[in-house]
Amino acid sequence: MKRGELPLPDEDDLADKYALADGLLRGQGLDWYEVSNWSRRGHECRHNVAYWVGDDWWGFGPGAHSHVGGVRFWNAKHPRSYGSALAAGHSPAAGRERLGAEDRRIERVLLELRLRRGLPEEVLTPAERRRVPGLERRGWLVRERGSVRVTDAGRLLADAAVRELLD
């Protein structure tokens, strides 16, 4: 697709397939806990949730990413480069970054809004909080018990909702 060799998928077709998958999964007793993850209630994948809430996690192997103590780092992608670094007694890490406070807040909005439990409303700036009612009227977001989360319909538009919400 990036090289123009394949067409981009039709967005309406993707939305229909998402709705079909959601219905089939719910029919089997699974429910969404993150826009792209389903499980039985109480059996959510703790490893996946760790990504969405900014916990520490380690990734091992070529191309793996890790997040420890507020620092993100990633390994060399190619297995040969990764193996050569290890064989030489060096770290296979290819890069690292430490996000500032505002970048972490923005990332938190982006990721936690995708969770069924949502994002604590207090994380939003006053201007962002003023945008929530408009997104509620459109059916994309809902406020519940001090949190903001995407609705069932809003899951299909989660990225667009975040773009409109953020300052």
The structural class is alpha+beta
Rounded radius of gyration (Å)? 19 Å
Strand order, main sheet: write it out: 3-4-5
Estimated share of beta-strand residues:
15-25%
Shape verdict: globular
**Low-confidence parts lasting 5 or more residues at pLDDT below 50?**
none
Q: What order do the helices and strands follow?
A: HEEHEEHEHEHEEH
Distance between the termini: 31 Å
Task: Let me know the number of strands.
Answer: 8
Number of domains: 3
Tally of alpha and pi helices: 6
Average pLDDT reading: 94
- The helix content is 25-40%
- Which sheet architecture does the biggest sheet show? 3 strands, antiparallel
Annotate the secondary structure layout.
Blueprint: H1 11-27, E1 31-34, E2 37-39, H2 46-53, E3 65-68, E4 71-75, H3 79-87, E5 93-98, H4 101-112, E6 119-120, H5 126-137, E7 141-144, E8 147-150, H6 158-165
Antiparallel strand pairs: 1-2, 3-4, 4-5, 6-8, 7-8
Could you please describe the fold and organization of this structure?
The structure is a single chain. With 167 residues, the protein is of the alpha+beta class. It folds into 3 domains: 33 residues; 50 residues, no CATH class; 64 residues, no CATH class. 40% of the residues lie in helices and 19% in strands. The longest helix is centred in the first third of the chain and has 17 residues. The model has no long low-confidence stretch (mean pLDDT 94).
